[in-house]
Design a protein that fits this description.
Layout: H1 10-23, H2 29-39, E1 44-48, H3 51-56, E2 58-59, E3 62-67, H4 70-76, E4 82-85, E5 91-99, H5 112-123, E6 127-132, E7 137-142, E8 145-148, H6 152-185, E9 189-190, H7 191-218, H8 223-233, H9 236-247, H10 253-265, H11 268-271, H12 274-280, E10 292-293, H13 298-302, H14 311-319, H15 322-331, H16 335-338, H17 344-355
Parallel strand pairs: 1-4
Antiparallel strand pairs: 1-6, 2-5, 3-5, 4-5, 6-7, 7-8, 9-10
Length: 359
Amino acid sequence: MDVTHHETDADEREERFKDAIRKTAPGTPLRKALDMIIAGHLGALICVGDTDNVLAAGDDGFKLEVSFTANRLFELCKMDGAVVVDRDLTRILRANYHLNPDPSLPTSETGMRHRTAARMSLLTRAMVVSVSSRRSVVNVYVDGKGYELKSASDLLATVNQLTVAMQSTRSQIDRSLLRLTSLELDNCVTMGDVADILYLFEVLMTAGEELDECIMQLGTEGRITKMQREEYLAGMDEAYTLMIRDYAVDSSEEAAAGIRKRLHDTANTQLRSAKSVARLLGYTDDRGEDSIMTPLGLRTLSRVPVVRDGMADKIVDEYGSLQEVLEAVDDDPARLGEIGVKNPGVLANSLHRMWGKGE
């Protein structure tokens, strides 16, 4: 069989990478076998999936066709060659199998076992696991890209750092948003205020992404961490987008999504600059941190219980900004009912209480 390097798109590669992480996470049968191999000071080369192409790239070895168990895989890895396993980790097909991937396939790996693993993952769609007996290191390869498996203790140490950072950042955001609401109602928000909070949102979201990777690598041991992550991020995704829409030149949801991506891709040093953030929000003038900003009011209005989904947009479309909404509430709150706000009096009272002018 002619075996060639398989081309894959980014989405497929990402999904296969995640699948590899799930299959090697603590608590899985494969991870149990890998831990036993490390404890036994053994080396190993394990190919999982795409078995037709894997078998076509080697020869010799023992044909087994036996059910997969962690203990059985451990015992078979005491032999020198590779072990070939089906994609679903239900059958072991070959042991002591001699692999011959194309030596011209590019790899930056140095050890023979790791080079073979990297090239096999380029040559086929298999997930290839390489265990170094000398260094007691496990590398997993997908499409030629490898990552080193971290121990559960190392992952948990990273998790602890990230959860502390997320808890602290979430508290800062909550306090900052309360202050921002007061500033918005008093019409004295500066570009510096906006930039500071957008920076905090980015810190939180980035930590959340890193924690998500740790959770995936922890497998069954990451369930409590996943609950903590959801708690720290609760409501933040919507609040982040609404805040961008409140202050961006283009307040559409599509534009906000693009701005979020650009903020995420921007270096931290630039995110700390009010001028840089202003440019990312679409402003072409030279806005510094003391420049006064006029919010649309989407985030503040969405906090009022009587403002249903989509109603904040209608209110802003009608009035133009939060300050004009406040003026309208003072002049004629009943007019809000004409654009579909139920209980406009409740909305008026809520805004007055936020503003500190309630009875």
